[in-house]
TrEMBL record:
Residues 445-571 form the Guanylate cyclase domain. This is Adenylate/guanylate cyclase domain-containing protein. GO terms for biological process: cAMP biosynthetic process; intracellular signal transduction. GO terms for molecular function: adenylate cyclase activity.
């Protein structure tokens, strides 16, 4: 059991450990980091004297020699202005200038951790990110608490402005470190913090529910319900503070999140006292426990008030919190002197909790700048309680470790990520059973969709705008694929590769619906003055092999087949004909009986990597309804003109395609064949089908 406890402590210490911050020591709004090595010291906190511009947005800043300065991290409450001290409400800009090395090869980033307010990050005058919406008055202001990481421009001279607004909380300003690092390091640190807090909250939730189950099995063991309530209070605080992992899963409004943070704090102390009282009722005062219950109840009622009022308790409640811990220590010492059960071990656990809680309070008040550690100390404390409850609970500790081991196995399996649809077609019931060499041959229909001219289009967008655009686009086409019994095999940049294992018509139907969704999406983009997009879709049906490719530490599901390559090439053909949807002859033959859509033949087209040309067909329903109707109405004339072209009767073909273009000037396919006819007349020996 002692070895188990030591392992748990080391486990939590490893969760909390991270690379140390180095202070930049900003002086008068400037810091020279041109000689700093981000390889040896990857994280630099921009602490020190930032220029302070009260009631000023970044675009309104006019720098002078007499600019004001405020040490960050810190609150602006009580800051001395010529007309007196300022309060917590208002808006302000903080500015510092940095000099970086000329030879930086990696992309740099700025990380701003959660603030109890709204803020925006500007670099060299450009808005790069933030949390909520800061504004000059409450009507323009929307608070939000979350960490933000922004990519910095590739330049040696940076002017960083943090625009902060507060009209809700008792204190305004920046109370956590602003960290400069490489983007990969910064993103890794935020991810690690979120993972750590997720793991801690999962352990708290699991252990709390475990003791709740124990209570239902043994109603006489009131201490089990006590540790359950205390674990749930700390669990609630863990998910509502720090990286606030709750908002990763649920869109929680600011006013709810802030109250969750405070209510979990108000009740952690009396619930902890109650827990010890249930273990040592002879040594702990029931009257003192009642006092803390009444105090927490009053403070909870105060949460009905606006945040500016109930957040003031943060300067008062720590006194009661520390007093609660002192009384617990006094009564635990009394129990220890009477040789009560495991009182020594419980005293040690209580010491850890008090140290963690004190650190968190001082960190939240911006007195010290560390990180939240109370949840981790509570986890250790809870496991200490398990030791005190005898053989039954000790046996369940083994189950807890088995659960942790199972979670580790599951995590390892997910790190090798295989789409769930692959599992079904591979005949695997669980992702943990997937291994290298697993493969199965199937006949499926492959759909490739690609945004045209995306490279040029993406160069006009910032990295964030690119991701937002692609996510917005994929959220529209992904559900259509699933709705039509297909699944997305992979995203290849802006391209989508989807598989339809059951019916060829599912793929064609999905393609038509995707084009309709894109037209609706373009309507929204037009309303926002954004450039519309065009998507070409190629479809082919053939045999393919689904399997697991990679090596034992990194695997992925993939599809290997000539049919896949051909589907990709057919998508490329849509650019040649300026078509929306093009399918192969194989797909057309299998789908023709139940296709249910209008089509027209195109031509044999040479495919790179294929010795023989491939016949392709255009699905007309991919166009706008009015345009598709015109093409359908002239389909017979088109067929006659195409037949003349294939018979090399170019005069007849020219006449036919010219008439088609008179009726449909936007018929890109007829225009292409007309150009080929004229070219064939001048160079009769050229390959007509190339």
């Amino acid at each position: 059991m002692k070895k188990l406890f030591l392992i748990l402590i080391l486990f939590h210490l490893s969760c909390l450990s991270e690379e140390r911050n180095v202070k930049a020591e900003i002086v008068k709004g400037f810091s020279d980091l041109s000689n700093h090595s981000f390889t040896n010291q990857p994280f630099v906190v921009l602490n020190g004297e930032w220029k302070f511009f009260w009631n000023t947005a970044p675009n309104q800043i006019k720098e002078t020699d007499s600019d004001l300065f405020l040490n960050l991290p810190g609150h602006w409450n009580g800051y001395k202005m010529p007309y007196g001290s300022i309060g917590g409400f208002g808006h302000a800009s903080f500015r510092t200038k940095l000099k970086l090395a000329d030879n930086l090869s990696e992309t740099m980033a700025l990380t701003v951790h959660e603030q109890d307010t709204a803020y925006a990050i500007y670099v060299n005058g450009k808005l790069l990110g933030g949390s909520g919406f800061p504004g000059s008055n409450p009507n323009e202001y929307k608070p939000e608490v979350k960490s933000t990481i922004v990519v910095l421009p590739q330049t040696t001279d940076l002017t960083i402005d943090i625009y902060v607004a507060n009209y809700e909380h008792r204190k305004g300003g920046i109370w956590t470190d602003i960290v400069l690092s490489t983007y990969t390091k910064g993103e890794s640190r935020i991810t690690k913090r979120k993972i750590n807090e997720t793991m801690l909250s999962s352990v708290l939730a699991f252990v709390g529910l475990f003791f709740l189950v124990m209570y239902f099995y043994n109603r006489d063991g009131k201490h089990t319900i006590g540790i359950f309530l205390f674990s749930m209070a700390v669990f609630l605080r863990t998910i509502s503070t720090g990286e606030r992992i709750l908002i990763e899963f649920v869109d929680v409004p600011y006013w709810i999140l802030l109250r969750l943070e405070y209510i979990s704090w108000f009740w952690s102390a009396p619930l902890l006292y109650h827990y010890f009282y249930t273990i040592f009722p002879e040594d702990f005062s029931k009257r003192m426990g009642t006092f803390f219950y009444v105090l927490s109840s009053i403070l909870t009622l105060g949460l009905l008030l606006p945040p500016v009022y109930f957040t003031e308790t943060a300067s008062i409640y720590p006194i009661a919190f520390v007093a609660n811990g002192v009384f617990v220590f006094v009564y635990l010492h009394r129990a220890y002197k009477k040789n009560r059960m495991e009182s020594k071990l419980l005293s040690f656990g209580m010491f850890l909790v008090l140290v963690g809680a004190t650190n968190d309070v001082l960190h939240a008040e911006s007195i010290i700048h560390t990180m939240y550690i109370a949840p981790a100390t509570v986890v250790v404390f809870v496991f200490l309680q398990v030791i005190t409850f005898g053989r039954i609970v000790r046996q369940n500790i083994t189950k807890t470790l088995e659960f942790a081991h199972e979670q580790k196995q599951l995590s390892t399996s997910f790190s090798r990520f295989v789409p769930t649809e692959f599992l079904f077609h591979l005949g695997k019931a669980d992702i943990r059973h997937v291994d290298l060499g697993d493969q199965v041959q199937k006949r499926m229909t492959i759909l490739f969709a690609d945004i045209r001219s995306f490279t040029e289009f993406s160069e006009t967008l910032t990295p964030k705008e690119n991701f937002d655009f692609l996510n917005s686009y994929l959220q529209r086409v992904g559900p259509i694929i699933r709705h039509n019994n297909g699944f997305i095999d992979k995203f290849i940049g802006d391209a989508v590769m989807a598989l339809f294992p059951y019916d060829v018509n599912d793929a064609v139907k999905a393609a038509v619906e995707m084009q309709e969704a894109i037209r609706i999406y373009n309507g929204h983009r037009s309303n926002c003055s954004y450039i519309p997009i065009e998507v070409g879709i190629g479809i082919h049906t053939g045999n393919l092999t689904l399997g697991i490719l990679g090596e034992h530490k990194r695997m992925e599901g993939t599809v290997i087949s000539d049919a896949v390559n051909l589907a990709s090439r057919i998508e490329g053909i849509t650019k040649l004909f300026s078509s929306r949807i093009v399918i192969s002859a194989d797909t057309f033959i299998e789908a023709s009986d139940g296709l249910g859509y209008h089509y027209r033949l195109l031509d044999r087209v040479a495919i790179k990597g294929k010795t023989e040309s491939v016949f392709v067909v255009e699905v007309l329903d991919g166009y706008e309804p009015e345009k598709a109707a015109r093409f359908v109405a002239t389909k017979d004339d088109y067929t006659l003109a195409l037949d003349a072209f294939r018979r090399e009767d170019f005069e007849e073909a020219i006449d036919g395609f010219s008439k088609l273009l008179d009726t449909n000037p936007d018929d890109s396919v007829s225009r292409l064949f007309l150009d080929r006819c004229h070219e064939a007349k001048t160079k009769p020996k050229m390959e007509l089908g190339s």
